[in-house]
Amino acid sequence: MATAPNASCPAPMKAVSNGAFQHENPLDFALPLLIVQICVVVTFTRVIAFLCKPLRQPRVIAEIIGGILLGPSAIGRSEKFLNTIFPKRSLTVLDTLANIGLLFFLFLVGLELDMRSIQRTGKKALAIALCGITVPFLLGIGTSVVLRATISKGAEAVPFLVFMG
C-alpha cells in the first residue's frame, strides 16, 4: 500500500501582537504582517509606475511588472525576503484579501459597463467572440486527433477531445 505524501497545513496566525515593547516580533502576527505586505506591494508598484510614466505605460503594466519582480522570478528568490515578508503561513490571509479586491474590481467593471455600446457593436462582437472561441477549439481538437496515440493511453475519445479542445 502506498503512503500519502506529507502535507502541512500551517496553523492560523494570531491577529495582533501585544507590541514590540513586549518583546514580540510584529511580523509573527497576521494584521501587522498584512499591513507590511500591502505597503511593500503598493510602494513597489507605485515606484515602477513612476518609472514607467515617461514611457506612457498605464499603471496596470507597472502592477504586472511589480508582481513579476516580487514573485519567484526576481526578489522572491531571496529566501530571507520570502520568509520575512511573505511567509507561507500568511498567504491565506493575503489570498483572501486579494480575492475580495478582485470581487470589488469586477463589481466596478460591471457598474461601468455601457449596454448601449455593446448593443451597437453586438453582431460584430458576437462574430469575433465566436471565431475567437471556435477556431482555437477546433485546432485543439484537430491536434489532439493527430497526437492522440502519443498523449492519451486508455482515455475515452469524446471526453479526451473536448478536454484537449
Average pLDDT figure? 84
Total number of domains: 2
Strand content: under 5%
- List the secondary-structure elements in sequence, H or E: HHHHHHH
Terminal CA distance reads 36 Å
Structural class of the helix and strand makeup? mainly alpha
The residue ranges in which pLDDT falls below 50 over 5 or more consecutive positions are none
Radius of gyration (CA) equals 24 Å
Strand segment tally:
0
Proportion of residues in helical segments: 55-70%
Characterize the biggest β-sheet.
none
Task: Provide a descriptive summary of the structure in words.
The chain is an all-alpha fold and 165 residues long. The protein folds into two domains: 94 residues, no CATH class; 47 residues. The chain has seven helices and no strands. The two termini are 36 Å apart.
